[in-house]
Every structure is written in structure tokens, then in C-alpha cells.
Amino acid sequence: MDFAHFFDYLVLARGKLITWLRAEPPAVYTRPFPIGLGSIRATLLHVAAAEWGYVQRLTGKDYGPADVPFTLERYPELEPFVAAWDQQRPLTRAALASLGDPARPLEYVSRTSVPPVRIRVTAGGLAGQLLFHEVHHRSQVMSMLRQAGVPAENLDYSILVAERTPL
Questions:
Q1: What long-range pairs does 161-164 form, CB within 8 A, spacing at least 24?
Q2: Distance between CA 4 and CA 58 in Å, rounded?
Q3: How far apart are CA 11 and CA 166, in angstroms?
Q4: Tell me: the pLDDT tens digits for 146-167?
Q5: Which CATH superfamily is domain 3-160 in?
Q6: Which residues contact 104 (CB under 8 A, 6 or more apart)?
């Protein structure tokens, strides 16, 4: 499976989502919603933090809660956050492109969980989680945007990537 290809699709969809968000007043980014992690900002920061963490695990690096770069304290505003997430993109793509054997076992202790837990997974399973996790939370952000009056739709792979030819 070409995990990097599917990550490229996520980045394309992410870009459209950010474009919609940039067109809104800043208050939409921080507005409380009863879904996701409570706001678009909190949800996107969580997605970026998880992506960073999955890349650390895929590349054999250990980390703790204080190491996570995507936090509200560091990125309270949209544009600096988007710039930082853009800097993460080539690292994520490289980790997915050089994944190696997707059946390769990975084991680590998640110290960001309370209490800490031991996790056993395959490299392909963790790569899949990285991809699916963003899709899950992107749906929540799209729902928040719709509640704010933004017609956020059509970010499916089949719409953004698949070749379509009229009959």
C-alpha cells in the first residue's frame, strides 16, 4: 500500500479545509462546538500533534507530553499553526514513503496517555491510523464549519484525486 500517496490526498483535502477556514472571521476558529475536541482550533491542533507523534513512533523515536510541538500555548492563532503544520508535512511524507515492511512490529509506551500504556501495533497499522485519524477529525471540523454557515463538502478521495471523464 502506498501510504505516502494517501497522505498526499490528506494534504490536498487539508488545504481546502484551511482555505475555507481562512475565509471566515477568526472567531470561527476558536468558537465552541459540542463535537470534536470542542473547537476547530483544538481539533486541528490534536490532529497535528497526533500526526507528529505517529511519525516519531514510525521512525523509532520516544517522546513525552512536553515534547509535543502542537499545543494551544504554542499556536493559539491559525496562521502560525498552519505554517508549523506545513513544516511537518515533508517529515510525515518521508516516514510514510520509507515505512518498509508494513507488518514490522512496533512497540512503545505512550506517556501521553493517562495512565501511560504499552502499545503494540504494526508499522502499517500505525500508518493507517495516522491517515484514518485525520479523516475522522476532518469530518468533525467540516461539521463545525457547516454549523458556522460554511458549505464544507466534497473532500472525498474520489472527488479530489480520482480521474473523472464525462461520458
A1: 161/9, 161/12
A2: 13
A3: 26
A4: 999 999 999 999 999 998 889 9
A5: dinb family like domain (1.20.120.450)
A6: 122, 123, 124
User: Could you state, in order of their start, the residue ranges of all structural domains in the chain?
Assistant: 3-160
Q: What is the pLDDT of residues 32-46, one digit of tens each?
A: 999 999 999 999 999
What percent of the chain lies above the pLDDT cut of 90?
A: 89
Over residues 83-96, mean pLDDT = 98
Global pTM value: 0.95
